[in-house]
Amino acid sequence: MFFRNLTLFRFSAKVAADLDGLDAALEGHRLRGCGPLELATRGFVSPLGRREEPLTHSVGPRTLVSIGAEEKLLPAAVVNEELARRIQKIVEEEGRRVGGRERKRLKQEVLDELLPRAFVRPSQLSAYIDKENGWLVLDTASRKAAEAGVTALREALGSFPAVPLAPEETPRALMTDWLAHGKLPAGLRLGDECELRDPATATGAVVRCRRQDLESDEVREHLKGGKQVFQLGLEFDGRVSFVLGEDLVLRKLRFLDGVLDELEADERESARAELDARFALMTLELERLLAQLSAWFGLPRPGDDA
């Protein structure tokens, strides 16, 4: 259950203290199936599996939650084709033009007939709450999906003032400096991919490097030409690799052999014990990484008035 991407929010110690009733709050917001005329539903499912009952799973001060969703698959092309067929039938049989109001009514009729027969696509977003350090960590690189996850928590809790990251150091400038001069913070080393852009124009040149020596003269020439780093592949302490974006989203997160060897050292008796081990190992590694990320870019935990 290792996360593959990280979108981050922060919250204060006061907010953390108010999370003691999380289990009960989520209970009233379980995922239910789409009704016949619903396009989508959203709610919480058990992180232990959709057939399990508990909606949270905690190891120490960190709590795993899962936001589930069901969405009807009804392509616009299908709706439009059926609508056009009905409009054409009226024109041919009644010899009159269909106005805007009638067109809208006909389209709703089409939706009402097709929705109950549409396929349902389930999805799930995992997240964990670190009450001790004030992090909400969502396993997605999509800002839209992350905001939807935070909104689901706010709806369940009534209030959850977790805020997006507001770095004191500009990520683009700092990463560009790391790549240009090769002087990275202790424990951090360059990976093998990056994305460079010319920030002067909205349609400026974009250079994407993969499986590339980032200390090469070719990359340095792009930087001398005024391009800046928008994404940078990095490795932390030889244990975690990722691609860090200027939005401070961590993509392509991967735990390296040293971490995986620790996980495989002991056998577990059950699937739940395996989940506990993976979750504990992942969150301990990320605790170290996020503490350094906070130090590099200036990401203080919000005060109790947040």
From TrEMBL:
The keyword Cytoplasm applies. Its main location: cytoplasm. GO terms for biological process: DNA recombination; regulation of DNA recombination. Keywords: Cytoplasm, DNA recombination. GO terms for molecular function: double-stranded DNA binding. It is found in: Cytoplasm, Nucleoid. GO terms for cellular component: bacterial nucleoid; cytoplasm. HAMAP family: RdgC. May be involved in recombination. Belongs to the RdgC family. This is Recombination-associated protein RdgC. It comes from Mizugakiibacter sediminis.
